[in-house]
Amino acid sequence: MFVTLWFINLIVWCTAQKQNFLLIIVDDLRTALGCYGDAKAYTPNIDRLATGAAIFSQAFAQQALCAPSRNSFLTSRRPDTLHLYDFYSYWRKDIGNFTTLPQHLKNNGYITKSVGKVFHPGISSNNSDDSPYSWSETPFHPFTERYKDAPICQTNMQILPAQNLLCPVKVSSMPNKTLPDIEILREAKTFLSNQARNSSPFFLAVGFQKPHIPFKYPKKYLKNHPLHKFEVPEPYKWSKNVSSIAYNPWNDLRKREDIAALNLKFPWEKIPKSFARLIIQSYYASVTYIDDLIGTLINHLERLSIRGDTTIILMSDHGWSLGEHAVWAKYSNYDVALKVPLIVSIPGLTYEKLKENTSVNNSSKGNQIFIDSIVELVDIFPTIADLANISIPICSSESMQITCSEGITFIPLIRAALKDEPILWKKAAFAQYPRPSIEPSIHPNSDEPRLKEIKAMGYTLRTNKYRYIAWLSFNPETMSPNWNNIIAEELYDYSYDKGENQNVAFLEEYAKLKEKLKILLQHGWRNILSAKSNF
């Protein structure tokens, strides 16, 4: 049923000339963008990109951690298929010889290039960014990223430079008088300049590092974000009827000297609101910094006269909590950790036709298409393959060695929105997060447990109306959960609780709904495209 409906909805989009692709991945970026309606954001360049693009308001990662998420969307395989929940395994050696998105394009005539953080560096990408399989050229990493955690941050309260969370800097005083993301921009521009003279189509993946911590960014961007406009999310507390297993104790923040100086009692003492506002301010300033670099990159693409031949996709690997539920960072199954921005600008589809038809499905504003249907990051690979006319099939349960996808192309969704037509579409997004114990801990790290330490897995199903989470016992040797041992449950009803602050999993009036969602979650992603479900 799933496969049949997918092929019915598949619409091949093509042009006389092969499209180029620019994939922009912004590390740890939540939907803190003006085009997503965030009034605190200052992102004029991304907002400009969005004026000729499809904006997906319900796009979700499959795990809120860098390496598992990136390997997932670059292979279009889910974490349970990759068996990667931490940073310490490489799928080609440990699981199966899965084809990646850039590898598929490379095998079909594309010049592929990785600039910055695309794959997570280290063991999970074979310490090579999956070279030579994925890339035509040697992946680029900025020289100055070696100073990422250098003690060069200084505040009025500190005599000596420190390793702080908050670290606005003067760029001219930094090592080599630059920052990693500025180096990434420079290399990306050089690649585009070279490709403008090349007849071969290209796939350029640019991975910007901010707003990943530490918040080391040019100090000048604070002027766009005066402190008075930021408040701590309310209620600034952990919900009493939610199990401790769902809590992420933001251990990575606690390692920073300015956070350590607060002398907070682990794990429940909250960051004081006065300091919390500074964290939120620096997050937004970091986003504006990256927005500025993205604007420069797109302007360069336009000056080279190849913008009209280049599909641009802007996305993140996962979101980031800014005090919601009194927690910070990623490492959870909440919307703020799993929801990501996804902006897709396709010449000849969204980029030009919008001028002729701006009255589109899911509401419209100016030249922007807002799509509130659910999509997942595993859908990126099949979508780009679709646009390149080298579509891949949906994976069967026995597809460890073939090029296939555990997502579906969302081009039919965009075309339906442009025509203001209904479409049968997936009803839910799936994600998961591991824990080493029920109670938060530093050793083992509750936020980043290694595979052998995992004792529980939180599986979550997200529909347009609800989020259901089941925390199950998990066997790291067999890589399997035990559905007969549910440790904890969560259920959130977005009709009145968009912030996921009221767990209704144990209310009698939700019992039947919870059971239906549990069955849907247990049956998995292959059953999410169903005309019968209305969740």
Commentary on this structure:
The protein contains 14 helices and 17 strands. The longest helix has 31 residues, at 273-303. Residues 1-16 and 353-366 have low confidence and may be disordered. It is globular. The strands form 4 sheets. Strands 1, 2, 3, 5, 7, 10, 11, 12 and 13 form a 9-stranded mixed β-sheet that branches. It has 535 residues and is an alpha/beta fold. Strand 15 (456-462) and strand 16 form a beta hairpin. It has helices spanning 2-9, 44-50, 66-75, 79-82, 91-94, 101-106, 180-195, 251-254, 257-260, 273-303, 335-338, 380-387, 411-419, 511-523, and strands spanning 20-26, 54-60, 111-116, 166-169, 202-208, 215-218, 310-316, 321-322, 328-329, 339-345, 364-365, 368-371, 375-376, 429-435, 456-462, 466-475, 480-493. One of its GO terms (cellular component) is cytoplasm. Residues 19-390 form the Sulfatase N-terminal domain. InterPro entries: Alkaline_phosphatase_core_sf, IDS, Sulfatase_CS, Sulfatase_N. This is Iduronate 2-sulfatase isoform X1. Keywords: Calcium, Hydrolase, Metal-binding, Signal.
Short description:
With 535 residues, the protein is an alpha/beta fold. It has helices at residues 2-9, 44-50, 66-75, 79-82, 91-94, 101-106, 180-195, 251-254, 257-260, 273-303, 335-338, 380-387, 411-419, 511-523, and strands spanning 20-26, 54-60, 111-116, 166-169, 202-208, 215-218, 310-316, 321-322, 328-329, 339-345, 364-365, 368-371, 375-376, 429-435, 456-462, 466-475, 480-493. Strands 1, 2, 3, 5, 7, 10, 11, 12 and 13 form a nine-stranded mixed β-sheet that branches. The protein has a four-stranded antiparallel β-sheet with strand order 14-15-16-17. A two-stranded parallel sheet has the order 4-6.
